[in-house]
Amino acid sequence: MAAPRNMLSGYAEPAHINDFMFEQQRRTFATYGNSQLKESAFLKYQVLHRSCLCRYMLNEWESQKVGVPLPKILYVTEACSLRRSLMRSFKHLLELFLSPEVCLHKGYALDPSIDNPEVATKYIGSVEEAEKNQGLTVFETGQRKIEKRKKFKENDASNIDGFLGPWAKYVDEKEVAKPSEEEQKELDEITAKRQKRGKLEDDKPGEEKTILHVKEMYDYQGRSYLHVPQDVGVNLRSTVPPEKCYLPKKQIHVWSGHTKLWEVYGDRRCLRTFIGHSKAVRDISFNNAGTQFLSAAYDRYLKLWDTETGQCISRFTNRKVPYCVKFNPDEDKQNLFVAGMSDKKIVQWDIRSGEIVQEYDRHLGAVNTIVFVDENRRFVSTSDDKSLRVWEWDIPVDFKYIAEPSMHSMPAVTLSPNGKWLACQSMDNQILIFGAQNRFRLNKKKIFKGHMVAGYACQVDFSPDMSYVISGDADGKLNIWDWKTTKLYSRLKAHDKVCIGAVWHPHETSKVITCGWDGLIKLWD
């Protein structure tokens, strides 16, 4: 009986080598011996896979400048096969491919023409390599393992100082990455070009001098103008706030000038002028006793001044613009101060050594305010990155981070007299109140509105008895709200331009001081 016809030309048996076996042998052959064609040899082949029809194509094997004629061969897998005759041709092709004229090194592979399991396995190609490797395929052998880099070993956990564990360094590891001579030359050239392009401004500190505006520094009893007056009807040494505060209604005095020291009582004279910055002064902070103060200016310098003599004691700079500065309020830490810089850092200096002793580097924008809270164990900072961060003193990682998608930048922050609340001037024309103890949550019931401050860092303050909240605005008005009801009580036309600062006298019931961009400082009562 004739075999059933499964092809146009008749009957063909299924192939005894499948795709997987063929690929395995091909990789083994290519791996062992690294079959590499000479530059003059050019090999081009195509392999056709399964087909239900008789789809035969002859692959053209060509050689250039070798002189070895390569036969035409057809290789079809599984469904399409010409059985042994094709396998013999395939064997002949491989032998030819492995000939010294074509190949530099020899590999080995199983003989595909043998399909009888009883016949011993035969190899084509480099039989010596096959016997040496016991006929293992590329997937079965453990050859070609890459040697791992060696590490220093010290896995004894009881050795506290010397234990390395998984963190041990490599034996050949370089600890310092130093550029080569050629790389160093290139870096020097690039640096020189950059310096030529944009020459840095002359950042020499301004010449410090002072002008005394009163005839005598000391009175007949030898007391300087820093002596606290006791004949003004108010105990200025007391730490107890007034029992009841009232709304200021009228202007009673005006001062004009900058970086000057004035009297608030008596004749309200200008006592002394401090000159020493080459650019505008951004912030000032007095120590607890008032004997010294720090000034931060756009000339990139922070300067420590003696309030009584006007002498500049020290200068501090890290080549960045300081936006705010604060002494540590603790009596035993009056030699330390922090400054919020334009390079997103809060820098801590020691006055005695003049060195930077700590850096708080977590903000994503210039730092605008620093306020000490929780009995001076912590401080709060705000930034142009629209966030509020709380820090433990001397620990450079913020333990509280407040940032919401709806939040705006808060360039002015003030602590309430009782130490429980933080009033933050938000750039969306609101004053937000955050708790200043433990959780630092937003108090949604205390939001003060009705003024226009967008784009201006208008200062906020509380009355000493916590009855009122005050703030300037872009229209030059002084706004006064009731603390309990958040109702806007009063709006006084204080300045012709922006009213940038407003402070309630801590010992008086109704005295408020405001300053504006018109260059005036005004006292209200």
From TrEMBL:
<protein>
    <recommendedName>
        <fullName>Pre-mRNA-processing factor 17</fullName>
    </recommendedName>
</protein>
<keyword id="KW-0507">mRNA processing</keyword>
<feature type="repeat" description="WD">
    <location>
        <begin position="492"/>
        <end position="525"/>
    </location>
</feature>
<feature type="region of interest" description="Disordered">
    <location>
        <begin position="178"/>
        <end position="206"/>
    </location>
</feature>
<keyword id="KW-0539">Nucleus</keyword>
<dbReference type="InterPro" id="IPR015943">
    <property type="entry name" value="WD40/YVTN_repeat-like_dom_sf"/>
</dbReference>
<dbReference type="Pfam" id="PF00400">
    <property type="entry name" value="WD40"/>
</dbReference>
<dbReference type="GO" id="GO:0003729">
    <property type="term" value="F:mRNA binding"/>
</dbReference>
<keyword id="KW-0747">Spliceosome</keyword>
<feature type="repeat" description="WD">
    <location>
        <begin position="360"/>
        <end position="392"/>
    </location>
</feature>
<feature type="repeat" description="WD">
    <location>
        <begin position="460"/>
        <end position="491"/>
    </location>
</feature>
<dbReference type="InterPro" id="IPR036322">
    <property type="entry name" value="WD40_repeat_dom_sf"/>
</dbReference>
<dbReference type="InterPro" id="IPR032847">
    <property type="entry name" value="PRPF17"/>
</dbReference>
<keyword id="KW-0677">Repeat</keyword>
<dbReference type="GO" id="GO:0000398">
    <property type="term" value="P:mRNA splicing, via spliceosome"/>
</dbReference>
<dbReference type="GO" id="GO:0071013">
    <property type="term" value="C:catalytic step 2 spliceosome"/>
</dbReference>
<feature type="repeat" description="WD">
    <location>
        <begin position="274"/>
        <end position="315"/>
    </location>
</feature>
<dbReference type="InterPro" id="IPR001680">
    <property type="entry name" value="WD40_rpt"/>
</dbReference>
<keyword id="KW-0853">WD repeat</keyword>
<keyword id="KW-0508">mRNA splicing</keyword>
